[in-house]
């Protein structure tokens, strides 16, 4: 049926569900992250009956400002980043 994506701000922290309904895609873009933070994600498959799989391996996503932009004035909104979680590989990438 789809996937649920969960995020925490520490490896031992409580994981919060990010999507209100199961997502059918194998990629999820988390736009509610802050720069200079590290986030920890797990994914669970959701069956048609609503049952959940065991959590995936944890993916870690450090959100940093690109080195070419350090020390320069940033436009409004630059304090945020994006984190992409890819379900199929249990990997997270930063932007």
- In CATH, the topology is named Immunoglobulin-like
Shape: elongated
The helix/strand class is mainly beta
Helix proportion: under 10%
What summary fits the major beta sheet? Answer: 4 strands, antiparallel
Mean pLDDT: 81
Compute the separation of the termini in Å.
28 Å
Secondary structure topology:
Blueprint: E1 2-8, E2 16-17, E3 27-34, E4 37-46, E5 59-63, E6 80-86, E7 91-94
Antiparallel strand pairs: 1-2, 1-4, 3-6, 4-5, 6-7
Overview of this structure, please?
The chain has 95 residues and is mainly beta. It has a single domain (2-67, 77-94), classed as Immunoglobulin-like (Sandwich). It has no helices and 7 strands. It has strands at 2-8, 16-17, 27-34, 37-46, 59-63, 80-86, 91-94. Strands 2-1-4-5 form a 4-stranded antiparallel sheet, with no helix packed on it. The radius of gyration is 15 Å and the shape is elongated.
């Amino acid at each position: 049926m789809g996937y649920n994506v969960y995020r925490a701000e520490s490896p031992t922290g409580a994981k919060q569900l990010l999507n209100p309904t199961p997502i059918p895609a194998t990629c999820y873009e988390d736009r509610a992250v802050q720069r200079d933070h590290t986030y920890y994600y797990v994914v669970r498959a959701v069956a048609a009956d609503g049952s959940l799989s065991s959590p995936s391996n944890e993916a870690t996503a450090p959100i940093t400002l690109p080195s070419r932009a350090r020390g320069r004035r940033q436009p409004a909104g630059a304090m945020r980043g994006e984190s992409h979680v890819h379900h199929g590989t249990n990997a997270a990438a930063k932007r």
